[in-house]
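Sample A.
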Amino acid sequence: MIPRHWTIRVRLTVLYGGLFFLAGAVLLGLTYVLVRESIDKPRFEGGMVLEQLPEVIRARFDPQAVANLQEVIRREQEAFQQQTLNSLLTQGSIALGLVGVVAVGFGWLMAERVLRPLHRITETAARIAAGTGAALHERIALTGPRDEIAQLADTFDAMLERLDRSFDGQRRFVANASHELRTPLAINRALIELAVSRPGAAEETRQLGESLLAINARHERLIDGLLMLAESENLVTERSTVDLADVVARVLGASPPDSVDLRSRLAPAPTTGDPVLIERLVQNLVENGIRHNVAAGGWVEVTTRTVGDDAQLVVSNTGPVVAPYEVETIFQPFRRLGSVRTGPERGFGLGLSIVAAIVRGHGGRVVAVPREGGGLRVTVTLPGRAGRT
């Protein structure tokens, strides 16, 4: 079975090779017809043909002997003609076969040359599709003749330029808006704390201040989450060696005591990336698992391991039953599942969005599946240290 990415190349090879082979076959056929016509009535030296021989020598030789000689010469002539044509067909067929082989090779090279720009466009598009917004900075920049393929590459580059500007503008807007909103929230927090801590403040004022501080803290967490989401959308360029097992142990050790049972099965899982972002990734997954354990006796289990050349992190937790169609959207910003949509511990729906953005920035992949009996199992796969180039 021919691989799919060879289909066009094979077709072009067959086209070019078939044209050359057909041209060779036509040339051989024309040569055969011309040679056959030229030797059909061979002439002797002096311009006499075989049929004129009896009249020339009848007066001097026996007519029967001349007829016999004429028949012998005719048979020799026919044998010579047939031998010549057979030799032409044999040698011509061999030459045609060699021409066919050369034509196929030439067609293969021509197809490779024709498809080389398309391969470059496809590889660039695949790298951009596998990366993040930062990968949009890459361009095809195709050189060579300004043909239709060059116009396609230039159009693709122009589209990437517009997308790059759009993504950069979006990230800058989110980051700038988050920074600008931090200042008034910090001022509000300071004023509320001052009013609450002032001597002689009424109990109602203290209760109102505590409520306002809780609301203010919630808004600050939202802004921090938006800022982290904007920053984690960038492709990670500066990397250092990180062991997921060490990061998980540090995150679990810093987790506050809770009714949720935290379990871990940690094996070395080295990778390369930004240690701060990877720690935030693990922290968000653990916090997400804890938040979804609304019933007593729940647990969160974190596993690290190496699969092939990749480092893998698996976070499983108990909780409410999750419908498969909801899993498809949990990595989108501001998406929350059932039990965390309401209540004092509800989140903003940014935690798993930040996880997905950090994973994409590190060139990895993340998958979530519902557990039987409720809860989720989230698997993060990052390129291992051995897999880095």
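Sample B.
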Amino acid sequence: MQRTTEIVNCSTPDSLPSIERISLIPRNIKLKVVFGRHIQNLRESIGNQWKKALPDFFIGIHTVEPEINIAKLISDEEILEHQIFFERCAKDYHSLATKLITDLAIHLKVEINLDRPMDTFGIFKMGKQRGVMNPWEYFFHGGHCAFFNTKTNQEIEVSLLSGAEFGALDAYFFTKYILSTVTYSPLPVELYEEYGDGTRILEGMIKLGKFERVYSDGGWQRDIIVKGKNKPN
């Protein structure tokens, strides 16, 4: 989903938007605060103040341009209202991730080491990291295998560092998956910031008892999964 950007040019400290004004920004508006020449040195300190005062907002302090971008993230109330939807998405994610990586193992003619899947697929990161398993394109990178459906544009990332739990949830990847899944459209709630909204969704669903943190890969990595789904189907 796309936001409308509202630009606020500020030349003095008094012209900067107040915390109250920022807190009233609707979720479909992104505020771009541009610091004039005489107050550019205040950008970082002001941005950090806003971050502390507005934990439910994305506050992006630009490292080069004299600006701060502000956007309201998904609220606790919205997560509570749509918890069934997010739970469904996580279960679907788990099922699809497990199916795809299982099908890929068959396609590549390997047997998955369910304790350490990276031991199975790591060899394909050396010059063979990309391929096609119609209609899916796959790409091994880092500790994941990315899948892209060339027919529907659906995207999903499968963790290779979480033992037999291929549906481990990452804030950014989970939101990308939701936004790219046609069957979820139109979404019951607006999502704009892949990482910011995704982080709040994961944390909110843990608080609601729908998601949980588990240790994987020898006990050193802590993953977030949908509750009751820590084993492949």
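B remarks: The helical segments are 19-23, 43-53, 76-81, 83-108, 117-121, 171-180, 194-207. The chain has two domains: 4-72, 78-226.
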